[in-house]
Amino acid sequence: MSNSKLRAAEVLRDTLDALGADRIFCVPGESYLAFLDALHGFSGIDTVVCRHEGGAGLMAVADAKLTGAPGVVAVSRGPGATNASIAVHLAEQDAVPLILLVGQVARDERGRGAFQEVDYGRMFGSIAKGVWEVTEAGMLAETVVRAWRLSLAGTPGPVVLALPEDMLSDECPAPTGVAPSAPARTGPGDDEIARAAALLSRSQRPLVIAGSGLDRPAARAALARLAEAHGIPVAPTFKHQEIFDNGSPLFAGHLGFKIPARHVEVLSEADLILAIGTRLGDVPTQGYTLPLAPDPRQPLIHVWPDANVLGRVFRTDLAVPCDASAFCEALARMTLGAPPERADWARRANASARDLSAARPQASDDGLDFGIVVRELARQAPRDAIVVTDAGNFSSWVHQCWPWDGTQQAIGAAGGAMGLGVPGSVAAALRHPGRCVIGFVGDGGVMMTGNELATAAVCGVAPKIVISDNGTYGTIRLHQERDYPNRVSGTDLRNPDFAVWARSFGAADFALGLGDDVAGTVSAFLGETRMAVLTVRSSAEAISAFTTISGLHERQRG
C-alpha cells in the first residue's frame, strides 16, 4: 500500500481487506457513516445490509463457523450494539472468532452522557476477549490487526472495537505491511504423547469426547484415524455431531442437551476420557457429570489450545495445550496393544447410541411428530446440504435422524441462543450459493429473526426454512411440564399464518399436517428454486425426540 493519507474509515476498510475479510454484515447507523461511505463501490468486501443488528451479528457468527475466519459485523452505537450483544455472547460460548465494529459518539462527547453513549469496555468486558476504543486514527490499523489475531488465538472468540464517529473522518497514513496470518497450530510434545499413550494402553473402556476444535476437514480425518487406530468410541459434543461418522461402529452418540440418562450411564462406565477440542462445558458433560467435576471418576486427558482452560473446572491427569488435530495425528501413529475388552466396550457404546437413533416417531392427535418430516428431509436432501439448526427441542430430531457421515457442514448454537436459524441459513446461502441450505427453526425462534428473509430476498439467495409450529416454547415447556406438570404459564404461543408470512418475503410456501403427503411435499419443497418455507404443524405432545409431555407426567407421578 502507498504512504499517502487516507480517511481513517478507508484505513479500516483497507486493513480488513488485507486481513482477508470479504464480507461485512451490518445495519446502518449515523455513527459510522464514514465507514459505509468508504465501502461504497468497493469490490473487495461484500456489504450485507440486514434488518436487525441481532440478525446481522448471528449471520457473522454463522459465516465464521463456515470459514474459520473472523466474522465481521458493523453496528451503530447504543441500541445497535446492545442488539448485537447476542452474537458476542454466542461467539464467546461457541468459541467463534468475531469482530464487532461499533460506531461510537464523537470524542468530545464521551463521558457526558451523550445521545446513545455506552461504555463498551464495561458492557462487553465479561464476554469479549478484548474491547478497545480507538481514539487516534493513526492507531486504527494496528488495533484492527491486533483484534483480528486475538479473535483467532487460543480459544477463539469475539473482539469489540468502538470507533468514534469523528475519528473515522480523520486523515492518517495508509496501512503498510498488513497481511493475513493464521494462528500457529502447535503440536503436542513427545513426552505428552508418551504419557497419553501410557494411559490409553492401560484402558479397557476409553472414550473420546470430541468438540469444535476438530471441526475442520483435516481435523475430522485425524479424529477418525485416532478412533480406528485404537478402537476408541467417539462421542461428539453438543451441536457438533457432524464431525464424526454416525454410521461408524465407533460412534458413541451425541452429547447433546438432555439426552436420555440411560445413555449417559453407559458412557459413564468409561475408564479413561480423552476430551479433545472441547472446553467441556455443562451440556456435553451432562451437567458436569461426564466427567464429574471437579474430580472425575476416571483419568482425564484434556486437549485444548488455550492453557487457561485446562484444569480450570476438572482435575486433569494430562493437560495438553495444543492443536486438537495434531494431538489426534500423533496419538494415532503410536503402536499400542488394545485389550480385548475394548472391542466389547465399543460395541456397547455404539449399541446404546443406535437405540436412541432407532426411536420411531409417535402418533399424536395434536400434530405431526416432527421426526417424521426430518427423516423424510434427510432421505431426500442432497448429501452435501448445509444444515442449520436454531435452538429448541425440535432440533433433537435433526441430531437423531440426520445421516451424519463426518463430511457434512452444519451450523448450530452450542450457546443455546434462539434466533440463529434464519440468519445462519442466509449466511450459509451467501457463502455457498450453489448448495442446498436447510434451516430448521421453531415457531419461537423464527419470530425473533425471521425478518432476515428480507435480506435473503435482496441478496438473491434461496435457503430452505423448515418451521416446527407446535404453538409453544418447546424447550421451556418441557422443563415446565417436568417441574410443574399441567401448570402451563407463559409458554403458549399464538402464531401468524406462516404461509402468508413466507409469501410476503417472496418465498414459496409449503405446509404439512396430520394426514398430508409428507414425501411429496418434501420433494416439492426441496425442488423449489426460490427461497422456500415449509411449515410443519407439529405435535406439542411429542415435545422432543426423547420424551412426550404425557411421559413427563408419568415420570412425575412415579
Please mark out the parts with pLDDT under 50 across 5 or more consecutive residues, or reply none: none
Number of helices: 20
Average pLDDT confidence is: 94
Shape assignment: globular
Strand content: 15-25%
Q: Roughly what percent helix? A: 25-40%
End-to-end distance, in Å? 73 Å
Structural class: alpha/beta
Major sheet details: 6 strands, parallel
| Arrangement of strands in the largest sheet | 3-2-4-5-7-6
**Tally of strands:** 19
Rg: 24 Å
Please explain how this structure is put together.
By secondary structure, the protein is α/β, with parallel strands linked by helices. 36% of the residues lie in helices and 15% in strands. A six-stranded parallel sheet has the order 3-2-4-5-7-6, sandwiched between helices. α9 packs antiparallel against α11 (341-357). The longest helix has 17 residues, at 341-357. It is globular. The N and C termini lie far apart (73 Å).
Could you provide a short overview of the structure?
This protein is an alpha/beta fold.
Question: What are the defining features of this structure?
Answer:
single chain, 558 residues
Outline the secondary-structure elements:
Layout: E1 5-7, H1 8-19, E2 23-26, H2 33-39, E3 46-49, H3 53-67, E4 71-75, H4 79-94, E5 98-104, H5 120-124, E6 130-133, H6 140-152, E7 158-164, E8 171-173, H7 190-201, E9 206-210, H8 217-230, E10 234-236, H9 261-267, E11 272-276, E12 300-303, E13 318-320, H10 324-332, H11 341-357, H12 370-380, E14 386-389, H13 395-401, E15 410-411, H14 421-431, E16 437-442, H15 446-449, H16 453-459, E17 464-468, H17 474-483, H18 498-504, E18 508-512, H19 518-527, E19 532-536, H20 549-557
Parallel strand pairs: 2-3, 2-4, 4-5, 5-7, 6-7, 9-10, 9-11, 11-12, 12-13, 14-15, 14-16, 16-17, 17-19, 18-19
Antiparallel strand pairs: 1-8
